[in-house]
Design brief:
0% of the residues lie in helices and 54% in strands. It has no helices and 6 strands. β5 and β6 form a beta hairpin. It starts with a strand and ends with a strand.
């Protein structure tokens, strides 16, 4: 997952939700320096299905849908 860490937005949190809206992963990336960042989210232990990844920086949020298919 790539994102732009904005210096003025001190809080940078990535959360993964399942299809029922339960938070199944939450990581705080606030300590990363500002600029382009890449983080790896490991879905290998997750069941097949639809997940939502939300990046929150300050008061701003963006959500993306991830579909994990069977292996």
């Amino acid at each position: 997952l790539s994102f732009e860490k904005i210096e003025t937005q001190k809080t940078s949190i990535i959360e993964v939700f399942d299809a029922y809206g339960r938070v199944i992963l939450s990581n705080d990336y606030s300590s990363l320096p500002s600029g382009e960042q890449q983080v790896v989210l490991d879905f290998s232990n997750f069941e097949t299905g639809v997940y939502f990844v939300r990046l929150s920086q300050g008061g701003n949020q963006i959500t993306k849908t991830i579909v994990k298919s069977g292996e």
